[in-house]
Amino acid sequence: MIYDNVLDAMGRTPMIRLNHLSEPNAAQILVKYEGINIGGSIKTRTAFQMLAAAEKRGDIGPGTIIVEPTSGNQGIGLALVCAVKGYAAKIIMPDSVSVERRKLVRHYGAEVIIVHDEGDIGKCIAECIATAERMAEEDSRVYIPQQFENVDNLLAHKYHTALEILEDVEGPIHGFCAGIGTGGTISGVGQVLKALYPDVSIWAVEPENAAILSGGGIGTHLQMGIGDGLIPDILDQDIYDDVCVISDEEALETARQLAREEGLMVGVSSGTNVAAARRLARKLGAGKTVVTILPDTGERYFSTELFDE
Ligand code: PMP
């Protein structure tokens, strides 16, 4: 099997049963390991879908400059897809994202523009978005995919992530949970699961310090990629049955346990998702199946608290 380019090798990530982090009297937990996807995260899928759809519509073409405000993985995914497709890319990031993310974006040949985070991630993301909009006003070659508003983000998960889950998991899925960044994952996967299994319990997950869906305040936290301090336009607010809040400590500890006990090298939000999945699994009980996502690899967190011993 020879792929024509690296993007053709994207997706079809494995579904793996947790053996040590599942509990005897709880539902089994199955995780979709996006850390070994092309580009190291689930966001290569959405980058590809958003740009391929924009090309089809004629919104972008030779000479287009892709500009995106992002807290990390979406920038890496876009930089990768732009490298393959030959577009220039400029990625606008808060300085609170890990240094690995910046270096990866630059390494794929894109430019990084940093916005200072003064302790309010919501404000900082808003400033990243405003910067991108200013750039688009000043240069007609600029195209902003706008992952928080772009329905192709959601469709990447509806057409691919969700269908791969259904291909791999035989029998009913009783629970699904995912942390909310743009809401693309939970909305896209959730819509497919709800259509097939109307009784499935879907939990939205958010960091304790940015629990905006739960009516909490917005602050900085360590669960990079989720809890951006806004309610995204593409989030389907009817798709989840409950909201689960996870602290930084529990997310970090669960991510470490995933490496040590399951051999899964994952980022902090994977810890968030599995911590929530364990609660959901306890609630649903033995004999049931809970699915969640491990959105990215742990190897882009060397400089962060995840690797503090
Ligand atoms: N975890 C990580 C590490 C991410 O980069 C993202 C994407 N922002 C998410 C979780 C959340 O995914 P979504 O944007 O689909 O809600």
UniProtKB/TrEMBL annotation:
Coiled coil: none annotated. Residues 7-296 form the Tryptophan synthase beta chain-like PALP domain. Its cofactor is pyridoxal 5'-phosphate. SUPFAM superfamilies: Tryptophan synthase beta subunit-like PLP-dependent enzymes (SSF53686). Keywords: Pyridoxal phosphate. Pfam families: PALP (PF00291). CDD domains: CBS_like. NCBIfam families: cysK, cysKM. This is Cysteine synthase. The gene is cysK1.
